[in-house]
Design a protein that fits this description.
By secondary structure, the protein is of the alpha/beta class. It is built from eight helices and six strands. The protein has one domain (35-252): Aminopeptidase, CATH 3.40.630. Strands 2-1-3-6-4-5 form a six-stranded mixed β-sheet, sandwiched between helices. The protein binds zinc ion (ZN).
Length: 256
């Protein structure tokens, strides 16, 4: 895995926030008619320059690939009329430079999802075999069945659509995964407010606390040569963006 529950963090470099927050009304349950008929999606290019992810063959960096892919996915989806697209970052910089810890950065990315009234948060990643060059394939990490059980079902449906599309590009389908929080964190981090076991991955955990369904898409292993051959280059990334976009279009019934 290229990530753990405490990764994705942001430390202390100085930069201004890249994202803008719409009117507060959009985060309330009673939305204005203008926004209520549009699907609101938050694309999260995993990691950033302050908190790098995996390094692949030839020194390719996960955080660069996720940003390129995220921009392409945004452009694909902006062709549709009934959707609003937001990004957690559009540069290599950490979006929350004032966050004191990686956990706080994660929480802020997910708080932003709630602020914009996101219907779904889609976190883009590439995987690492951690020394195992044979590890390969695509997987989608989804929220567990606790606290907001419908999010698990939503993640299954969208995740399976994404995996199916990625498999047509040649990636092995390694399926959907959930992971519960481990015992080695503070007790309040181990459970949701209802006492049920929390999700391990920080984005999935904090998105749920902010009432947003989320998935983490691990598109393939940049430490595996065959997967990397399907990932490297603008043309390949465009195909990955198309695969993600088509799944999202199908799931939400987006129209042009
Ligand atoms: Zn990652």
């Amino acid at each position: 895995m290229a990530m753990a529950g405490t990764l994705f963090g942001c430390g202390g470099s100085a930069a201004t926030e890249q994202t803008t927050v719409p009117d507060a009304a959009e985060s309330e349950s009673t939305q204005t008619p203008a926004s209520s008929d549009k699907v609101v999606l938050l694309i999260d290019p995993g990691h950033d320059s302050a908190h790098p992810g995996a390094t692949g063959i030839g020194g390719v960096k996960e955080e660069d690939l996720t940003l390129q892919l995220g921009e392409m996915l945004k452009e694909e989806l902006q062709q549709y009329s009934n959707v609003e697209i937001y990004m957690t970052r559009e540069t290599s910089a950490c979006p929350y430079p004032d966050a004191a810890s990686s956990v706080e950065d994660n929480r802020q990315r997910c708080a932003y999802a709630e602020e914009i009234g996101a219907d779904f948060m889609i976190s883009l990643h590439f995987n690492s075999g951690s020394g195992d060059e044979t590890a390969n394939g695509s997987m989608v990490l989804i929220q567990n069945t606790n606290y907001e059980p419908t999010y698990n079902e939503m993640g299954q449906e969208l995740g399976n659509l994404i995996l199916s599309n990625l498999s047509t590009l040649g990636f092995a389908d390694k399926g959907l995964q959930t992971k519960d929080m481990t015992d080695d964190v503070e007790p309040e981090q181990q459970t949701y407010p209802d006492g049920s076991r929390s999700d391990y991955y920080a984005i999935l955990h904090h998105a749920k606390l902010h009432h947003v369904p989320a998935v983490i898409v691990e598109h393939g292993f940049i430490t595996n040569q065959e997967d990397l051959n399907r990932i490297s280059g603008t043309e390949n990334l465009q195909k990955l963006a198309g695969a993600d976009a088509q799944a999202i279009v199908t799931y939400f019934g987006l129209t042009k």
